[in-house]
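P.,

For your records, the input lines for the assembly:
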Amino acid sequence: MSPLELLSAAFLLAGAAFCLAGTVGVLRFPDVYCRLHALTKVDNLGLGLVVAGLALQSASWATALKLFLVWLFVLISSAFTCQLIARAALRRGAVPSGGRREP
Amino acid sequence: MGSWFRAGAWKSAVARVVFVSVAWWALCDGDPKSFTFGLPVVLTVSVVSFLLSPPRGYGWRLTEVLRFAGFFLAGSVHGGFDVARRALAPSLPISPVFVRYRMRLPQGAPQTVFRITLSLMPGTLNADVLGDELVVHSLVDRGEGIHHELENLEWRVSRLFGLGIPPPEPAHA
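Structure tokens returned:
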């Protein structure tokens, strides 16, 4: 294996590990709001690492950029989706675990 | 249509055309044969983009965009690590809390960018918007620390758009 392939494999494995950690978070966290943290932040980092690993193996700059665009758009849509789910949960009165502090 | 040609609008136009062209080039794997079809597509998408969201002439600069991108990347990596660590730790060290935050940024793109980025920063998540007031969910109750982080992020977003918001006061520990 060339150094580039090793680096790519390291990125891919790290990405898979973060996706696994994100799923563990969804299963373990107590309420919908905490689970959204796991879904948005951890999975975006996992996807970013997978994309970086694949970009290192890609044949051309255009393919690498295409992978980056995939990550960027997933990032934006997951941030929006997360906000929509949180708002829907709040307005339906999903009970949060933990406190609430007014300014 | 005349309002498009204010100072700043040209820069926005060039940036959008460049982005769409580069995206097309990436989608077609840089194949030169795709350019005959790509040119009309780039023009159409650019025009539609202007019709749906006319440039508002924010005084953004490329250096500030790159600086913010670096800050955002570091923050989202930190955020991912932080939540992954808490999810895997046997004791599940979280103390979720809702806080309210009054935004000083103007409505529109600055507020949207602020809300998206704060959802990907360590520990915070935008849950609801009530006018200029945000409902923010934090995975860990860090007291005043949350407020200072939000102020810092808001200040960085305001710099991104070339808006003047006073920098956050240093935290009193």
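Two observations worth noting. The first strand of chain B starts at residue 97 and ends at 102. Helices of chain B lie at 9-27, 35-52, 62-88, 109-120, 144-160.

Regards
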